[in-house]
């Protein structure tokens, strides 16, 4: 391996985010470079700090191509991430880079690098690009240093994946086989429509399922536009939006409002979000969508408040009624319209399947995705457990929260990401048994990982602490994953997102997992079961 290591960093497209996050990124880069130099290797940053921008990130695909043109194509390359990043800024360069690649993130929920790295890793996996990956809190622990020495020595970093086993090794219960087979056959025969309000959010290459892989499952995309959604919002009367707000107020949902739209959540922002909710349902009904995803990034973020309140409401069975503008028919009455945050099509497929399986089994079908944000050990019922922070800006249904709507608070989205504000559906996920999953693309193959876990209750002061070190405006789940360690999940999970759904008890959760696994397998996916306590 060559002596000199090159370092690059992908950042956000939004200048405000890059400027706010740069100090943390700079500190992490210094720690990583110190570790490399301590192993006798020189390291060179592949692109400079830009004073006029006040950051040193690769902040566009155009700039990324310029950077990679000037890098030795055979050189060992480290991609260091302490922030959420747009993968497409560096993807073209990594796709053709011939030297070894190592992705690194800091173990912190702050901006967050873990989420950014998982998205980058998943995108490289989809493209079939070989890479190694590592993470660390301070880059002095043996886990990180041993992995780094391995990579510097010219080898791939190999992680423990003993928690992952192919579905073919298990014998599923007869009920699960029958339910899964029936639902998969119904989907292939009747087909379903996935509404896409602009594809490819924030450069998330991993979140796009190629049509040729999706169509055999029975799901087809309806490619819609955020501009269409905005135009439909303009057709919604204030009176109809006010009815949605009044419905939420009556259910006990609280809105933390203030007078300044630059820093506060305002009543006007909430009214716009209610209009988006109504418009999304009407467009979905017009096009016959079974699930939808709203990108809410380039374009819509400069026209309207955030889509997060909308997403959570859509994912809830009990939600404000919306009528057809002409006929007065209640749209999707008594149903959730599964919404996948950030147009993550893998989550859209997953959410649609969960909705159908849980409905068929008579379980509450609400499900959502979260970011795999962070985690620490904590004593749960007197036992030290690794408790994950699953956290996402939108898409969490109130039925997942302690107290439902009455336990939900809407707070303004952080201004560095969401200039025009808009409220979230903030709350703590209720304790209970969960099924977690992830659909992903691996070098041309559509796959799914499924596992079992439990959302747990932590003391209020610990919950508040975790909000302070992540994003305090977003809903949070405290999650235990049965039989899956911290490093095992990070090594295997091919997404920044993880799908979760509740079941009333362990037995019903195991039944639901088995039926979902059978349905996904019969849809043509390569399914793996992760961890333990799944009853198989």
Structure description:
The protein has 536 residues and is an alpha/beta fold. It has two domains: 4-152, Rossmann fold; 169-530, 3-Layer(aba) Sandwich (L-fucose Isomerase, Chain A, domain 2). 35% of the residues lie in helices and 21% in strands. The protein has 15 helices and 18 strands. The strands form four sheets. It has a six-stranded antiparallel β-barrel, surrounded by four helices. Strands 2-1-3-4-5 form a five-stranded parallel β-sheet. It has a three-stranded parallel β-sheet with strand order 8-7-10, sandwiched between helices. Strand 1 (4-8), helix 1 (15-38) and strand 2 (42-45) form a beta-alpha-beta unit. The protein starts with a strand and ends in a 6-residue tail after the last strand.
Rg: 22 Å
Number of helices: 15
Rough outline: globular
CATH superfamily of the largest domain: L-fucose Isomerase, Chain A, domain 2
Distance between the termini: 45 Å
Helix content: 25-40%
Number of strands: 18
Report mean pLDDT, rounded to a whole number.
97
Unreliable stretches (pLDDT < 50, length at least 5) are: none
| Classification by helices and strands | alpha/beta
β-strand amount: 15-25%
The number of domains: 2
By CATH reckoning, the class of the largest domain would read Alpha Beta
